[in-house]
Write a structure and sequence with these properties.
Strands 10, 11, 12, 13, 14, 15, 16, 17 and 18 form a nine-stranded mixed β-sheet that branches. Strands 1, 2, 3, 6, 7, 8 and 9 form a seven-stranded mixed β-sheet that branches. The chain is of the alpha+beta class. Helices cover 49% and strands 12% of the residues. The two termini are 27 Å apart. The mean pLDDT is 92. It has 24 helices and 18 strands. Helix 14 (415-426) links the parallel strand 16 (411-412) and strand 17 (464-466). It is globular and about 105 Å long. It binds adenosine-5'-diphosphate and magnesium ion. Adenosine-5'-diphosphate is lined by residues 211, 213, 215, 282, 295-298, 344, 346, 354, 469-470.
């Protein structure tokens, strides 16, 4: 019998790094080679058109059809100079990926030939036949029209022969069917609210921009091993597999030397990402074996989100070229770390001031405090919603598990900032207590220069941590579209800041000085949001109990967490800021529940199939061999001696019998349960039933499969083992 597993393991073991085509220039020279950025706009557009487009990009000014037409002409010339023949609107429907439909630039020339054409209308707006994108019932199939509309704030780029145009995707009736439309509305809401507040401190502020720096974690697995694991192939994670004797306990992978084949993949990925304008900066090994991270430098939030979507698709594509598969699932392997996507978030004004970062003067410090405290207010008021914004069937494996932030939102500030908040809260009068800067420590190490020690410590267990000049939202999942978290966070901050300026203005109207009014409202807010601050160990059980006492949202069931989107406070927040309507929120929740139930349904089917046609047959075959051996031994030896010599094999025969019968019984029960549940009407109820009644089977069935993996002869086991998938590269 030939075992495919051994073949793929051997092939994987002997693979060499794939040669990378390294440009003969510096990264700064090929950066954004395939992007129609401002430098190219300047070159390809008439000056008046360039200026109008710049106004639209930098200040959100509207664009006329005439200007768009001129932009399209310049864009087409550039694209054709670059060898492009097609264009597509590129959008982010409410699935996990992006969508595109390519059209050639070709049109009839009405002389029997064709000419290359691309007009402003095709740039601004397209009508993808959109009936098979999720809409949560907003757009029923008989009214299938959806529109994609150009987003000038995210520059077009070329992949292969195609000009890619970032767009929003909306329904015929104007509702958002994607992530980008509400994100842009949320960013506009923050701009408006934060500008009003920033002007208390500097009248020259006219615009506030949101920055996002994401850090993408991922696993690489050899593609041969991947192909022989149907669970990885169909669900993105392993539904079974005993942990490897060695995994991450030696702590030798994090920041370790990058394996050669992986290094070559990373190099290829970075070159291509840089050429597409993604400012790649950091790469390293992560904690788990075969787990890695890529982080670019932060950018304006809308652009950063597009770049993350682009990088995820590049990762998948380039991994294949290098004989790997890239796993973006939050928890591909049990028992070792999962993957997240930290979202580093901050605000910048047009005057260049980062709103987070303690100042030198007391006015700066007051500004800094205002934005920190109002961010905490947002997180506190909507902690359930923010959790919902990062929750999914896949991220649920990470949240609450031991290496990830718990399924409870809290903020870590570090001891100094916490002390400052406490002092302000206790203080009276109109003077601001001063923030103590930690002084540069002198290290007594020869030849090592002085280090500047950060004002904040690190706390890896916190889902939302202040890290010096930004908040780091760590609970975001590795597969997620960052926009989901960014929509919720930015909208909540916009609401908090609006509320803040309303109260400050009311006090001032009553005769209080600005500083006095600011301090009064800040004190009130520091008090009100205190329960969201937690600097201790977020993984501990004490914290779970404490968080419940503090009234924070501690729900762990994914479908029930989605309910937070429809809380009255959430609906009011989204409606008053103009980001989403109740109807849109309801529709999006339908999609979330539906996606959840379908994912669990697929996992349940795959687990059932693998149990019945991989695990049980293999285990039974091995068992038969043992039975055969015992029979033969009985013929060779006197009964008593045979019994003694066969005791071990008889025990294994019995154990295999026990495990296989439990697996078969549980799979049958799970299948029956699915049939029963599938009759339930309504997406929410279905999702809840799948969560409550199907997922509990997974651990039980897996437990028995993993036990079998330990006792069945290795040469018979067909599925690549953890030690192979995690250590061969
Ligand atoms: P780590 O937290 O892993 O040490 P890094 O220091 O490498 O991460 O930074 C992570 C991300 O945070 C990067 O994308 C970086 O550009 C981004 N970042 C740094 N400063 C800011 C800021 N003020 N606002 C938003 N993102 C920032
Ligand atoms: Mg970080």
């Amino acid at each position: 019998m030939s075992n495919l597993r051994f073949k793929v393991v051997e092939e994987a073991f002997h693979k060499r790094p794939v040669e990378v085509n390294v440009p003969d220039r510096r990264p700064s020279e090929y950066f954004a080679k395939y992007v129609f950025n401002k430098a190219k706009m300047f070159r390809y557009l008439p000056l008046s058109v360039y200026n109008a487009l710049r106004e639209a990009i930098d200040n959100g000014a509207p664009l006329t059809v005439e200007v768009a037409d001129e932009v399209a002409k310049g864009m087409k010339r550039w694209a054709m100079d670059m060898g492009a023949t097609h264009c597509t609107h590129w959008f982010q429907p409410l699935t996990e990926g992006t969508a595109e439909k390519h059209d050639a630039f070709l049109e009839h020339d009405w002389k029997g030939g064709m000419i290359e054409e691309f007009d402003g209308k095709a740039l601004i707006q397209q009508e993808p036949d959109a009936s098979s994108f999720p809409s949560g019932g907003i757009r029923s199939t008989f009214e299938a029209r959806g529109y994609s509309a150009w987003d000038p704030a995210s520059p077009v780029f070329i992949i292969g022969d195609t000009l890619m145009i970032p767009t929003v995707f909306i329904s015929y009736t104007g509702e958002s069917l994607d992530y980008k439309a509400p994100l842009k509305k949320a960013l506009a809401a923050v701009d408006k609210a934060a500008t009003t507040v920033a002007r208390y401190f500097d009248e020259n502020v006219t615009r506030v921009t949101v920055n996002l720096g994401w850090e993408q974690e991922y696993f690489l697995v050899d593609e041969g091993l991947y192909a022989t694991r149907p669970d990885l192939l169909l669900t993105g994670r392993t539904l079974m597999g005993h942990e490897s004797s060695k995994n991450q306990q030696m702590e030798d992978h994090y920041f370790g030397a990058i394996p050669e084949r992986v290094q070559s993949f990373m190099q290829d990925l970075e070159i291509q990402a840089l050429e597409l304008g993604v400012p790649c900066k950091t790469r390293h090994n992560e904690v788990a074996p075969n787990q890695f991270e890529l982080a670019p430098i932060f950018e304006e939030c809308n652009l950063a989100v597009d770049h993350n979507m682009l990088v995820m698709s590049l990762m998948r594509k380039i991994a294949r070229k290098h004989g790997f598969r890239c796993l973006l699932h939050e928890k591909p392997f049990a028992g070792i770390n999962g993957s997240g996507k930290h979202n580093n978030w901050s605000l910048t004004t047009n005057t260049g001031v980062l709103l987070h970062g303690p100042g030198k003067t007391s006015a700066d410090t007051l500004r800094f405090l205002t934005f920190v405290v109002e961010t905490l207010v947002a997180l506190h008021r909507h902690n359930g919603l923010l959790k919902a914004s990062i929750m999914s069937a896949t991220n649920a494996h990470r949240l609450g598990a031991n290496e990830a932030p718990p399924a409870i939102m809290s903020a870590f500030l570090g001891s100094q900032l916490s002390a400052l908040l406490d002092e302000v809260e206790r203080s009276e009068g109109d003077e601001l207590p001063s923030m103590q800067h930690k002084h540069t420590e002198l290290l007594d190490i020869p030849q090592i220069p002085e280090l500047s020690i950060d004002n904040t410590d690190r706390n890896r267990t916190s889902p939302f941590a202040f890290t010096g000049n930004r908040f780091e939202f760590r609970a975001v999942g590795s597969t997620a579209n960052c926009a989901s978290a960014m929509i919720a966070l930015n909208t909540a901050v916009a609401e908090a800041l609006t509320d803040f300026s309303r109260r400050v203005d009311a006090l001032r109207a009553g005769g209080r000085s600005l500083q006095s009014a600011l301090l009064a409202v800040l004190r009130e807010d520091i008090r009100a949001c205190k329960s969201i601050r937690f600097d201790g160990n977020g993984y501990s059980d004490q914290w779970k109990a404490e968080a419940a006492r503090r009234g924070l949202d501690c729900e762990t069931s994914c479908p029930l967490i989605f309910d937070r989107y429809l809380d009255e406070a959430s609906v009011r927040m989204f409606e008053t800021t103009g980001v989403m309507t109740r109807h849109e929120l309801e529709a999006r929740n339908e999609i979330k529940w539906e996606t959840y139930h379908k994912k669990i349904q697929i996992e349940s089917r795959v687990l059932g199939d693998l149990s019945m046609n991989h695990i049980i047959p293999v285990a039974t075959r091995y068992q038969s061999q043992l039975v055969d051996n015992v029979h033969k031994m009985q013929q060779c030896f006197p009964a008593e001696q045979a019994a003694q010599l066969c005791a071990y094999n008889i025990d294994i025969i019995e154990r295999i019998g026990r495990h296989t019968s439990i697996i078969a019984e549980k799979v049958t029960e799970m299948t029956e349960k699915r049939k029963e549940i599938n009759r339930i009407e309504g997406e929410r109820a279905l999702a809840v039933a799948y969560h409550d009644e199907i997922t509990p089977f997974f651990d039980t069935i897996r437990y028995h499969i993993d036990k079998l993996e330990l006792i069945v002869a290795d040469e018979m086991w067909t599925l690549p083992k953890y030690r192979e998938m995690l250590f061969i590269r």
